[in-house]
């Protein structure tokens, strides 16, 4: 009679054995994982398209970005409003069709305000935001290198202090993953029916007053 080499005691809890093939199947070959080949290729593709549109929209130019702060050039806010309208309709339409799932970042008032202030100061001093600095470098604006180095340093600093921030400032005003319709107590369909026309109207008025 053959006995196992390492017999389990009688009171041992049951163990889950995962076959090698099943384990490999759930590895990096899963196309839904963020580090899968499919996701990396899609990220690269959409990143190139995003950068191309930013450059063609003119929002990677120092004078255009600074013109928004001085209220002499409204290109940035026009592009942002257009992106919000298209993105809002596109994302919620795809979700209604079951083609995408929303991964809503948690709303943390204190952290969002502090991050927004740091972002605004950096944008005002440098003249570029993280996305436009990459595009600006691509079109030959070498002053954007300072912003890219700052982006890398800031990312490293945040990663190193994320544990401390999670236990301090991120706890202040933590509302979880909420959407604007939830905050306003409106149904999504009603929210879209009200806000999309208002945004389009605002965009048309801005195009008329500040062509």
UniProtKB/TrEMBL annotation:
It comes from Methylotuvimicrobium buryatense (Methylomicrobium buryatense). This is YeeE/YedE family protein. InterPro entries: Sulf_transp_TsuA/YedE. Coiled coil: none annotated. Signal peptide: none annotated. The chain crosses the membrane at residues 36-54, 75-97, 109-129, 141-159, 188-210. The keyword Transcription does not apply. Pfam families: Sulf_transp. Keywords: Membrane, Transmembrane, Transmembrane helix.
């Amino acid at each position: 009679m053959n006995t196992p080499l390492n017999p389990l005691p009688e009171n041992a809890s049951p163990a889950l054995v995962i076959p090698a093939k099943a384990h490999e199947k759930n590895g990096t070959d899963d196309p839904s994982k963020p580090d899968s080949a499919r996701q990396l290729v899609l990220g690269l593709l959409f990143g190139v398209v995003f950068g191309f549109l930013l450059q063609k929209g003119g929002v990677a130019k120092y004078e255009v970005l600074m013109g928004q702060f001085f209220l002499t050039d409204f290109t940035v806010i026009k592009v942002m409003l257009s992106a919000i309208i298209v993105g809002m309709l596109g994302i919620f339409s795809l979700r209604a069709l079951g083609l995408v799932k929303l991964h809503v970042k948690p709303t943390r008032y204190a952290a969002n305000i502090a991050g927004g202030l740091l972002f605004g100061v950096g944008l005002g001093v440098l003249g570029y935001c993280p996305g436009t600095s990459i595009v600006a470098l691509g079109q030959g604006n070498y002053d954007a290198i300072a912003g890219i180095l700052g982006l890398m340093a800031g990312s490293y600093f945040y990663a190193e202090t994320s544990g401390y921030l999670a236990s301090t400032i991120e706890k202040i005003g933590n509302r979880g993953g909420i959407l604007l319709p939830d905050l306003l107590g409106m149904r999504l369909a009603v929210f879209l029916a009200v806000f999309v026309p208002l945004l389009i109207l605002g965009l048309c008025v801005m195009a008329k007053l500040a062509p």
